[in-house]
Design goal:
This protein is mostly helical. Helices cover 59% and strands 0% of the residues.
């Protein structure tokens, strides 16, 4: 029986190798795509948890269902203002917390 014993020991090194070092155009593109995906998942999960359809959410923020779908699919990233409007429309709040050092 063969097992996979490959382990990533340094995640930063793996990202650097695959997408380039921080500050390079390739890494900036990867980071932007990762943030877009992460944002889409936050909003999708929040909408489903609130049991609100895409159409209803669109109505609440004066947008189209297609716009909500594109956000949730990671095709587009909403502006910060739209992100807050969506969260508010779902009865949620965004909290910015300074880490304790």
């Amino acid at each position: 029986m063969e097992t996979n014993t490959h382990q990533i020991k340094d995640y930063s090194a793996a990202l650097n190798e695959k997408y380039g070092a921080p500050g390079t155009p390739e890494r900036a593109q990867f980071d932007e795509e990762a943030y877009t995906f992460y944002t889409s998942q936050i909003l999708l999960d929040a909408r489903k948890e609130a049991k609100v359809s895409q159409s209803e959410l669109a109505r609440r923020i004066h947008a189209t269902k297609s716009y909500i779908s594109r956000i949730e699919n990671g095709t587009i990233t909403p502006s910060v203002a739209t992100f807050y409007r969506i969260m508010n429309a779902l009865g949620m709040r965004v909290e910015v917390v300074k880490p304790i050092m």
